[in-house]
Amino acid sequence: MRAAAGDRSEMSITIVTRFAPSPTGLLHLGHAYSALLAFDEAQRDGGRFVLRIEDIDFTRCRKDFEEALLEDLAWLGLTWELPVRRQSEHLAEYSVVANGLKARGLLYPCFCTRKDILREIESAGGAPHGSEGPLYPGLCRDLSEDERQTRIAAGESFAMRLHLDRAVAEAGNHLEWCDLVKGVQLAQPELLGDVVLVRKDIGCSYHLAVVLDDALQGITRVTRGEDLFEATHLQRLLQALLELPTPEYHHHSLICDDTGKRLAKRDEAETLRSLRVRSESPTDVRSRLGCSF
Ligand code: GLU
Question: Which of 56, 158, 216, 245 has the smallest number of Cβ neighbours within 10 A?
Fold first, then answer.
């Protein structure tokens, strides 16, 4: 049967947006902007809005911050589907995927400490910088299998890094993604280099978990701050390697304080909590953010 004209559910793909905070601090105005924008994009087009708690980093995430963010978002007037996905409850699933990449020869163990990496970069006279810091100089990329096994057997701790050259050779170097503001982009994963996909301490990584969850939750548009623009180049490559769909992206400009400095979680002044204590309303927050939506 053909869909009647105007029947959105049959005629077009439902937009699914998400807000994916990490409970490592209190939400500030920048988070509020991302969340309100993503929520509004879904509402405007009769779509769905999903909240996901990105709490794999147990060294920094806290339950009280998670409770606070749920309360702050509800106060802002947002509603979301239940149950909320918490990444910490799915670590085994991320491991399975990481092991699959490893079996394909796309990951290698890296025994370096931060100090080792800095020392190497210093002696080489510097390294190209990406949005996550200096690119990994490749110290462990070409270790022999023997050396790897010996060091693992000796109990040395290690992360697993993406072998970028092999990954690009497998996925091709003409991957595209689309940003709503900047248009079609050719993926440049080399901007981030051999990123860690399995951290030493938490057995997973942001990049791996985020692409899996965006796919699993059927996200069609990722709305987030432009500080993650470069990360998308790498995430696009992971989507290709894992045969996952690529959502469209909306990287919005970052919210700054009165001095023009980008808001960070450590800035207490502009948290939603502090605004609430100062008796500001959700409407005040929207107008501070210049939300026309
Ligand atoms: N969890 C990330 C953060 O709080 C956001 C990740 C994303 O939107 O892709 O910074």
Answer: 245
Percent of the chain residues past pLDDT 90, beyond the cut: 84
CA of 63 to the centre of ligand 1 (A): 17
Ligand 1 geometric centre to CA of 196 (Å)? 16
Q: Ligand 1: which atom is nearest the Cα of residue 210?
A: 9
Tokens of 70: 């749920």
- Give residue 265 CA to ligand 1 midpoint distance, Å: 13
Whether ligand 1 lies within 6 angstroms of the CB of 254 is answered as: no
- Residue 74 tokens, joined: 């509800």
234 within ligand 1 shell (Cβ under 6 A): no
Residue 286: partners with Cβ closer than 8 Å, 6 or more residues away:
36
Q: Which atom of ligand 1 is closest in space to residue 225's alpha carbon?
A: 8
Tell me the per-residue pLDDT of 233-249, one tens digit each, with 9 for 90 and over.
Answer: 999 999 999 999 999 99
Question: Measured from the CA of 231, which atom of ligand 1 is nearest?
Answer: 9
Q: DSSP states of 88-143 as a string?
A: GGGHHHHHHHHHHHHHTT-EEEE---HHHHHHHHHHTT---EETTEEPP--TTTT-
The size of the chain, in residues, is 293
CB-based contacts of 94: which residues, under 8 Å, 6+ apart?
56, 87, 203, 204, 208, 209, 212
Q: How far is the CA of 201 from the centre of ligand 1 (A)?
A: 19
Helix, coil or strand: residue 276: helix
Mean pLDDT of 208-229: 97
What pLDDT digit, counting tens, does each position of 269-282 carry?
A: 689 999 999 999 99
**47-60: buried (b, 16+ CB within 10 Å) or exposed (e) per residue?**
bbbbbbbbbbbeee
Q: Beta 248-252 vs 221-225: how paired, if at all?
A: parallel
Give dist(CA 156, CA 110) in Å, integer. Answer: 10
Q: How far is Cα 66 from Cα 52, in angstroms, rounded to an integer?
A: 11
